[in-house]
Amino acid sequence: MAKKVLGRGLGAFFPEYDDKGEDTQGQTHGAIDRERVLQRVNVIKELAVSNIRPNPYQPREDFDEIKLQELSDSIRMHGLIQPVTVRAIGSERYELISGERRLRATKMAGIGTIPAYVREVDDDELIAFALIENVQREQLNPIEIALGYKRLIEECSYTQDQVARKLGKNRSTITNMLRLLNLRPPIQHALKTGAISTGHARSLISIEDSKIQDKLLKKSIDDDWSVRQIEEAVRKLDQRKKSRSALLQKKDQEDLYLMELSSRLRDKYSTRVQIKKKIKGGEIRLEYYSDDDLERIISLLDSVD
């Protein structure tokens, strides 16, 4: 069962119910006759819109007001063709499972009733049903989908594998969508508004430098880059990064070698030694601190076979 993360009891929505399962008349709500409830499920009924509360697990955040008005005008003229789906939560009280846009548009049209398919669903199934319906209708943007997956994991204690099975997706799809939530706000916004695609966003995830991220994001939007173009740009950046890393590693190795040589010469001549590498060749500097010290060093050099 889902955790009561949102802290919603029936009393928060309907004053006649308290959280202990009793109505204000003292009648037991928690013992709403099971048979009465079952008699009202798996059927299509015309319900009062005022008796349907929104789905508290609705994964969709943004509703296009223009499209909502168009749907409302269509419902006013032709009626609602496809019923919404609800679950019974009390005597003539229902909670929306799917069909948020249709319910909103019906209210907007000033229509008091709506056809609804009544199902028996528990809380964790309610989240899944809402998410599945929206995903199948392609009404959620990628960030909303990712947040829906996250809610299934956090609020219903699902594993990624369980989410994948529940939604008929590959495990890798769930993982990749959840990674989108790690994107910086500007990129998430571009993804939510459709300025870039999920493919663009996934390419940007691999870039650690936020300034480079912003630069490529701007190029993708302003120049209408394809996913392949941004992937190629990221690949070139990665190659340059690897080349710089290899050069630095080589330089570090050379520096260590020169330091080792300097140490050996310092021990041999008992003086400070500096080895400096140039484009071609280099130079070795041996310090002396007096004329006698110079003679000593020269003598040692002369003795070298």
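That was protein one. Protein two is written in the same sequence-then-structure order:
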Amino acid sequence: MATRVRSYSKINLGLGIGPVRADGFHGLLTLYQTLAQCDVVTVTARRLEGGGGSRISLTTNHPFVPRDGRNTAWKMVEKALERLGGADGPLLAEVAIHIEKNLPVQGGMGAGSANAAAALLGLEKELGVALQEAERLELAAAVGSDVPLFLVGGAVLGTGRGEVLEAMPDLPPTVCLVVVPGVGVSTPAAFKAWDAKVAERGTFVGGAGPGVEEAGSVIGVGLTSDPVPDTLMELSHVYSSVFGLEKVKTDGLKPGTSGIVPGHDPAEAGQYLEKKQGGSSGSLMDLENDLAESTLLSLVRTGVENGLSNDFESVVFPDYPSLREIKQLLMGIETEQRALYAALSGSGSALFGLYRSIADAEAAQRRVQARTFEFGVKSFLTETLPRPEYWARMFAG
């Protein structure tokens, strides 16, 4: 029987860019948040006996999604089979993957990375064998920087290339409007523009410090490789105090970072993570709107103070001024239905706003739809997805 896995999306509540490391990647400091909007990844797998190799096939309803080894889900399954066999060598299997795309391709919402994580979970369930949590996360990081996030879920602080994770206390479930412009933003090009800006100024741009341009967009003192651990520790303490909960510390790839426990029981996974948080997630879910608003506003202030605004905005918005306008429409500063927070997600082109109510989000959606852009714009309403709910709803049945 095939296994259907919900492949959720993410936004970056904040993203700070550091210097280029020895391996050629930029150091990053980012706060991820998973969303309920999802693709569905269906995996069918059976073991093969005898010689030969594994056979992988991939289908999808989206014309622009690769159907071969370029696809992150394919890469994940291929690499996982090499490890699942243990000392006896690769596990041989025939695997069919189908990706039902509902999320934008290359929209800054982590859709391809989420597909890879979902494919791994589906493969493990189909074959009745699972990697250890640390090995699962190590494998995920080898496939893509965002992939480990989707083996944790909820609110997650990322450092390194974004793949070294600290699971944080969850946000209250919050209405989110995502706008996906019909224009793509190249992540390599955005990094190149960032590097050019850094070279021009002779220092790093972004991070904590003065010089707030607008809500969620800070230009100030540089984020360099040395201060990142201190910044991370400071943010972790402040973030924990905002929610009044003990944060879940995962320390990179140590066991306990993933929500999956033996047997893949979603209910057990949720209970396991609640225990690690030192309390019930229900207390967060039952918060009144005023408390939810106060925690989000505290998060925004904390993000600005600690450099977790999206540094990409300073180089993407000048090249794509319509994206800046969309953010302003999402914010709705001169209206009564203004956002609690709005920003570019990743390097874009998707943008998002968080709102007190569905009515406020729908008002923002109307503001965006009423404006005629030189490219098409799609938008959808969803909500932030806390960690226990992320795992409880993972397997689609």
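Residues 204-233, 242-288 have pLDDT under 50 and may be disordered. Keep this in mind for the problem set.
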